[in-house]
Amino acid sequence: MKENPRSSRSSSNPSHLLVGRVGRAVGLKGEVEVLVSSDAPDRFAAGGTVYVDDGGSKVLTVEASRSRGDRTVVKFAEIDERTAAESLRGAELVIPLAQARELETGEYWDHDLIGCAVVTVQGERVGQVTDVLQQPSGSLLVVKNAGGEHLVPLIQEVIRSVEPGVLITIEPIPGLLGD
Q1: Beta bridge partners of 71
Q2: Among 111, 126, 115, which residue's Cα sits nearest to residue 159?
């Protein structure tokens, strides 16, 4: 099983995928830092388009981009000064699901996992997936139950089967479920 693609993070609209989050403004000409959550290397290349996930249909066209540490500095054609760039801070950038890359076997979009019941291979109920955290070391399922929550790594050694939208079966490693 492969880990979730980094671009899998769903937006608040399940027909769209989160590809980045806008950080602070950079300089005076409308550039912004973007924490990219897409694994498509050309997602923020010049000419690409993304949408602001604000319930509207604001389209942003990438004019230019460059790497800056763990973030990407992006200049959008529609944003030409610092004040407009600052107004984007915190905005989620999304693409329509139809524009997403094809998934390989063993890959899932986050929205396919959120809501799934989680059980052990012995049939014991662990809880329900409420979120998927994308970490540099890999993806973690946030599994909640009446006793609290567990962070379950999305790795082959733990995940035994996935029925998207329905059920995830795990083989817990020692200490994973607080035992």
Answers
A1: 68
A2: 126
